[in-house]
Amino acid sequence: MKPTYLPLVVCGMFSLLFATGVGLRAEDAPSRPSRKKPSEGAGRIEHKYRHKQVEKYEFGQGPRSYWIFEPAAPKPKRAPVVVFLHGWFSVNPAIYGGWIDHLVRAGNIVVFPRYQNDVGTLPRDFLPNALFAIHDALTVLEAGAKHVRPDLERFALIGHSAGGNLAAQIASVSADPKSGLPEVRAVMMFMPGEVLPLREPKLSEIPASTLMIVAVGEDDLLVGDLRGRQIFSQAVAVPRSHKRYVVFRSDRHGHPPLIAEHTAPTSANHRLDNGEGLFRAFQLSLGDVNALDWAGFWRIADATLAAGFAGKSLDEAIIDPDALTHLGYWSDGRKVTPPLMSDTLDSVPRVVLSNGIRLIPWEWPVKITDSAATDVADAKSTK
């Protein structure tokens, strides 16, 4: 292990200790939230999926390897492509398996780049590794006889933690015609954080046509909200009609409690477990699937994907913000605390600690406002 990475490793291990406050698994929680009132019965949102099975394939070796997950039973001829970018050291697809299964059975191809091998993978290599995997995956999908063909007119990015930051970078790179990437219709970043700050690529290059969701958690002690606010405010080309900033809030009213912490977007599915990952067993143990997932992260992502693939703005897609952020009710009828959603940073509170658990801030946590920048973007979009 290189000495320069010791603080990062210690920071990552320290953050995992904070995560032990997550409640019991969803299947052990008879009082878990439901969109239905108690008199109508309790339980999770039931999705009517188009496909019954998920086919999985692995390609390559090391930090440029990747997995492809395709819908099957029935197998479509062509499908949208969603690139799912994992968090730091979360290289095992099973850690996000519930969400991946949901996306694929709904009719999407999911590409899961493994942009990181171990602590020896330099953070500056994350982006080129991920780009290589995406390009190669699209080539395999287009050329392979047994694969579902990719619909490159419907291409999107979802990222968590370091993968959220990476998703923003890839969306920026896509603006260059020489990048070889399809147009990014939507980019969604959940609890985004930087392992190492980089000046390039510039997030101001994220295309105006891209729909953008930045989501943070009020109890995220690892990354706070600093990077999320930076991404939202620096994406000046994206008008307010095309982006939303979301703050997920914790609700400890019932059992198990819903905690909006850093690992909340994980969703363990052991059927996708490949046996890899430095903290594999521990990360899988934290990946419970609850209302924050199926009624929160997944539903907001689904709505954004649908709008982006249909060429709509978020203003057009989100007619009723309260309905989109509704997480359901506890078994006693009390409404679960919903996330806050806004098209401006000025109307939502900061997350404490705003800079996460880092002892030395990478940037002073001054107030970041996006009002002026988004006003300029809105003015440009109307010309």
Number of strands: 9
Distance between the termini: 53 Å
The CATH topology is what? Rossmann fold
Major sheet strand order: 1-2-4-3-5-6-7-8-9
Strand content: 15-25%
CATH architecture: 3-Layer(aba) Sandwich
Uncertain segments are 1-44, 364-369, 371-377, 379-383
Q: How many helices in DSSP terms? A: 10
The level-1 CATH class? Alpha Beta
How would you explain this protein's 3D organization?
The protein is α/β, with parallel strands linked by helices. The chain has one domain: 3-Layer(aba) Sandwich (Rossmann fold), CATH 3.40.50. It is built from ten helices and nine strands. A nine-stranded mixed beta sheet has the order 1-2-4-3-5-6-7-8-9, sandwiched between helices. The radius of gyration is 19 Å and the shape is globular. The termini are far apart. The N terminus and C terminus are likely disordered.
Quick overview of this protein structure:
The protein contains 10 helices and 9 strands. It is α/β, with parallel strands linked by helices. It has one domain (3-381): Alpha/Beta hydrolase fold, catalytic domain (Rossmann fold).
How are the elements arranged and paired?
Elements: H1 6-18, E1 53-59, E2 65-72, E3 78-85, H2 97-105, E4 109-114, H3 126-143, E5 149-160, H4 162-173, E6 186-190, E7 211-217, H5 226-234, E8 243-248, H6 280-286, H7 291-309, H8 314-317, H9 321-324, E9 340-342, H10 371-381
Parallel strand pairs: 3-4, 3-5, 5-6, 6-7, 7-8
Antiparallel strand pairs: 1-2, 2-4, 8-9
